From TrEMBL:
Highest taxon in the source lineage: Eukaryota
Main subcellular location: membrane
Keyword Disulfide bond: no
Name recorded for this polypeptide: Leucine-rich repeat-containing N-terminal plant-type domain-containing protein
């Protein structure tokens, strides 16, 4: 009888271990959603001198609890507010992958370089405020892809050149 009890306990311990490992693998395979990964790409391309974005972690399932990020009920980031944080660097190309963004507020930082052409992929973007930075170059023609754009705030930057003719297609 004692052999049967030992066998059963061994089976139960083995089954419990198998179940635990399976659940951990399923949980680990989910990982950060794609929009969260794009936001991490953005953060990794910037220098956050004062560590304002310190809770942006790849181990989170979504970016919805991150500082400066507001999401829909479907966990898609729609607002990004990183203003007044002394953040420096350029917007990476991956910025254009944040397809659910409606509003970006990034004024009064030390952002530099040109706006990426991929900004045109942000079809839902209504508000883009990045004044008082060091953004340079010209406004890319691809900005006409921001079909919902209502406000483009880029005052006090180093933007030059003429507005692209495609800009006239927007309701700004």
């Amino acid at each position: 009888m004692s052999a049967h009890i030992k066998s059963r306990r061994t089976f139960e311990a083995g089954f419990t271990g198998f179940w635990l490992v399976t659940m951990l693998l399923v949980y680990a395979s989910e990982g950060l959603n794609s929009e969260g990964q794009y936001l991490l790409d953005l953060k990794n391309g910037l220098h956050d001198e004062l560590d304002h974005l310190n809770n942006w972690k790849s181990t989170d399932l979504t970016p919805c609890g991150w500082i400066g990020v507001n999401c829909t009920s479907d966990y898609e980031p729609v607002r990004l507010n990183i203003c007044n944080n002394r953040i420096s660097g350029s917007f990476p190309v991956e910025f254009g992958n944040l397809s659910s963004l409606i509003e970006v507020v990034a004024y009064t930082n030390n952002l530099t370089g040109p706006l990426p052409h991929s900004i045109g992929n942000l079809k839902n973007l209504k508000i883009f405020r990045a004044g008082q930075n060091g953004i340079s170059g010209s406004i890319p023609a691809e900005i006409s892809g921001c079909q919902s754009l209502q406000l483009l705030g880029l005052a006090q930057n180093a933007i030059g050149g003429e507005l692209p003719k495609e800009f006239g297609m927007l309701g700004v």
